[in-house]
Design a protein that fits this description.
InterPro entries (chain B): AAA+_ATPase, ABC_transporter-like_ATP-bd, ABC_transporter_ATP-binding, P-loop_NTPase
Main location (chain B): membrane
Membrane topology (chain B): Peripheral membrane protein
Strand content of chain A: under 5%
Subcellular location (chain B): Cell membrane
Number of strands of chain B: 10
Structural class of chain A: mainly alpha
Strand content of chain B: 25-35%
CATH superfamily of one domain in chain B: P-loop containing nucleotide triphosphate hydrolases
Oligomer: heterodimer
GO molecular function, one term (chain B): ATP binding
Radius of gyration of chain A: 28 Å
Chain lengths: 530, 256
């Protein structure tokens, strides 16, 4: 019977993979392209690892790679809960299955797919890179199988333990932030790799010394031990991985049984007692101005924190705005003008203001009956943005200056930042009124189908316009730096840039307001497609 | 009789499809008015154009004697709207949403909070007022939307399918609030395709099908000789006599 179940579930997994090909043209292309890219990477890293063979510190690098990949397996189900439908055992709850055959079947099914194939390639390459002698290769085969099983069981156990979270609203919110974690993680990894490249691989050794005892990296560590003749150590490392596998399967199996025998909690009403957090009005609200301005600001700021899409966009902007100038400064390639990146990245948040409201813009539209209302609405949103952006851009500029030690240039960098911020706010307000588009609330897309052109015009057109609007300040900056004796006057660029930015913002809002008030139905239609 | 809403020659096309094909309508003030019709009849499009949320291709709309498109200041202050598809700020709690909506309309903060507390109590939302709207059930969302639409005490209330997907208890609560509201002389215009509901609630109905008004007037007049509004409606839209009896003869009666 159990072989039967395993066969069926594996075939189910294969059909799911195949069905990836049976989507609409664009999605199929993306599916195939991603598969090809992953396979290409798998082959490349396999070749790379084989070439590493015999190099010093190859063992440390390999152990670290395996550990990082295992970490990836552990967090992947949290970020991509929809990625593998066989990962969600609640879908099989209606079938009469016993836990043991089910665990076997699901484990077998998890081994099918591109992810496991990639992992297999990396592990095999790792063994080839470090194994010396027949015994080491034999241990390598066991090690690869063990490590792969530990990875898969780890993913399953994490998914089963968090299935309640994954099928809830909070879990979906978390998933939206995942792209971000990857983006920022890539920046950090990139920086780390550059550091390693400049200072050598021996930096890895202390970390690897710990990790070669942590499953599943210990299974690959065993290969190294056996290569050096320490058979006892190798056996212990293998046993550690095997023990981890047994423990993970036990944990997973227990969660699975509980999941299959208890009701789905996602539709249960949450206890009303939990909701009795008496917060008549937040401290923030009392500091904001009264009337529409304060109301709009409060709502915008709440959304920065509470709405996953808005939050993801903000965190991305904040992180990139900080990382780019700082990393460049740390590597000695930076210029103080990179600090303007922060203002530029954060200014993007002014774009498509009404798209961020989604169809709830309807509530706003019902209360805008004159250009004056629209002006106050847009100004409130701009002020909310400035509340975060102004201190942040200043901070980034000061930090960059401190790293570079280029204090005389601080005023002009700040002035440029403020001018750019003003230009971004102005063009953002105008394009919000003129080129609104929907932001789908589910999934990773940030533009509704059919509106990509609009989004493109809105953001890139706006950014080019913002750069052009800044041209006078940039020109003055260059002139003061080039002209003889101009250097003594560069401090002037701070007040000039700030004033210029403020004037641009006010003009942009003034221009955008009548357009917003006059196009309410059109904006509402455009932002309601999500 | 004064008109709450007066529509003349209203048209709307979406590409090739005509959604609303020249509507003329006078809705009397102080009544509970039902706009009924099958799915796709143009009810939502009509209500959107009447409330200024969708620009008509042609025609004019006056609400409480003022043109919706030329005098939005006067109109928007006097109407409340519960739009289709529950367009609410999902990441605010119910109470925050009401506070936001009332303040956007320029009401004093203290007054907004007082009215919000009362509305939340009456609509049985007090227990969930600090939960985010995104975690609300359909019934709770409709009630929250209704509260937001009532907060500024409008003269005319437009509701698009207020009872769709709402449980019987919430429906009864909504009903109670609306009946009290119309008893004070205000006008409610709501769309629905549930005839029994319209029949039991409304004293004035307009029947829509395929973008046109097929009949309108006091309930008794529209119902005429028919046994129920449902019957009258089916006759009006010409859907009577369609029978699914001959097919599906295998369905029911035990497995064979």
């Amino acid at each position: 019977m159990s072989g039967n179940v395993t066969g069926i579930v594996v075939r189910l997994k294969l059909s799911l993979l195949r069905n990836g090909l049976r989507q609409s043209g664009g999605r199929r292309a993306a599916y195939i392209a991603s598969a090809v890219v992953v396979l290409l990477f798998a082959v490349l890293q396999l070749l790379g690892l084989i070439m590493l063979r015999g190099t010093a510190h190859a063992d440390s690098l390999v152990v670290l790679l395996v550990a990082v990949l295992a970490l990836g397996w552990a967090v992947m189900p949290l970020f991509f809960p929809g990625g593998d439908e066989t990962l969600d055992p609640t879908r099989l709850v209606m079938l009469p299955l016993r836990p043991r055959p089910l665990v076997r079947a699901l484990l077998a099914a998890s081994l099918v797919g591109i992810g496991p194939l990639f992992t297999l390639c990396l592990f095999t390459g790792s063994v080839i890179a470090i194994a010396r002698g027949g015994a080491a290769y034999a241990v390598g085969v066991i090690g690869v199988v063990l490590a792969l099983l530990v990875c898969v069981a780890l993913a399953r156990a994490v998914a089963a333990a968090n299935i309640r979270l994954l099928s809830s609203r909070k879990g979906r919110d978390l998933a939206v932030l995942s792209g971000l974690v990857i983006a920022i993680g890539a920046q950090v990894v990139n920086f780390g790799a550059q550091q390693l490249g400049s200072s050598g691989l021996d930096r890895l050794d202390p970390a690897a010394d710990v990790l070669r005892w942590v499953p599943p990296a210990s299974a690959i560590g065993a290969v190294e031990s056996v290569s050096q003749g320490s058979y006892g150590t190798g056996a212990l490392q293998l046993a550690l991985s095997a023990g981890a596998l047994v423990a993970l399967i036990a944990v997973w199996s227990r969660h699975l049984t509980r999941l299959m025998t208890s009701p789905d909690g996602s539709t249960l009403q949450t206890a009303t007692t939990a909701a009795v957090r008496e917060r008549s009005s937040t401290g923030l609200a009392r500091l904001l101005p009264a009337g529409r301005t304060g109301t709009v600001m409060e709502r915008s700021l709440r959304y920065v924190w509470r709405d996953p899409k808005t939050k993801a966009a903000w965190v991305t902007s904040l992180a990139i705005g900080l990382l780019v100038p700082l990393f460049n400064a740390m590597q000695g390639t930076g210029s103080i003008y990179f600090a303007c990146f922060a203002a530029g990245m954060l200014g993007i948040q002014m774009y498509n203001q009404f798209g961020q409201d989604t169809s709830a813009f309807c509530m706003v539209a019902m209360t805008i009956s004159s250009p004056r209302d629209a002006y106050v609405e847009l100004r409130g949103r701009a002020l909310a943005l400035l509340l975060i952006t102004l201190p942040y851009a200043t901070l980034v500029t000061v930090l960059t200056t401190a790293l570079l030690g280029d204090w005389p240039r601080l005023p002009e960098a700040l002035g440029l930042s403020f001018a750019l911020l003003g230009a971004m706010l102005a063009t953002g307000a105008w394009t919000s009124a003129r080129f609104p588009y929907s932001i789908p609330q589910e999934g990773y897309k940030n533009v509704a189908p059919g509106q990509a052109g609009l989004a493109w015009i809105s953001i890139f057109g706006g950014m080019i316009a913002a750069a052009l609007l800044c041209a006078p300040v940039i020109a003055v900056t260059i002139w003061l730096n080039v002209a003889e004796g101009g250097g003594t006057w560069t401090w002037l660029l701070l007040p000039v840039g700030a004033a210029y930015g403020a004037v641009l913002t006010l003009l942009g809002l003034r221009l955008a307001a009548p357009r917003t008030a006059g196009r309410l139905p059109e904006i509402l239609t455009a932002v309601s497609k999500g | 009789m004064t008109s709450a809403v007066s529509v003349r020659g209203l048209w709307k096309r979406f590409g090739q499809q005509v959604a609303v094909a020249g509507i003329d309508l006078e809705l009397p003030a102080g009544k509970f008015i039902g706009l009924v019709g099958p799915n796709g009849a143009g009810k939502t499009t009509t209500l959107s154009m009447v409330t200024g949320l969708l620009r008509p291709d042609q025609g004019s709309v006056e609400v409480v004697g003022r043109d919706v498109w030329r005098d939005p200041v006067e109109v928007k202050a006097r109407i409340g709207v519960l739009p289709e598809g529950l367009r609410l700020f999902e990441r605010l709690s119910g109470r925050e949403l009401l506070a936001y909506s009332g303040r956007l309309r320029g009401l004093p903060g203290a007054e907004v909070d007082k009215r919000a507390t009362q509305l939340l109590d009456v609509l049985d939302l007090a227990g969930a007022q600090h939960k985010l709207v995104v975690d609300y059930s359909t019934g709770m969302r409709k009630k929250t939307g209704l509260a937001a639409a009532l907060l500024h005490n409008p003269e005319v209330l437009f509701l698009d399918e207020p009872f769709e997907g709402v449980d019987p208890v919430s429906a009864q609560t909504i009903r109670g609030v609306l009946e009290r509201y119309t008893a004070s002389g205000a006008t409610v215009v709501f769309s629905s395709h549930v005839m029994e509901l319209v029949e039991s609630l409304c004293d004035w109905v307009a029947v829509m099908a395929a973008g046109r008004i097929r009949a309108h007037g006091p309930l008794a007049e529209v119902r005429g000789e028919a046994a129920s509004l449902q019957q009258a409606f089916l006759e009006l839209v010409g859907a009577n006599g369609r029978d699914a009896g001959s097919d599906l003869d295998w369905l029911g009666g035990g497995a064979r």
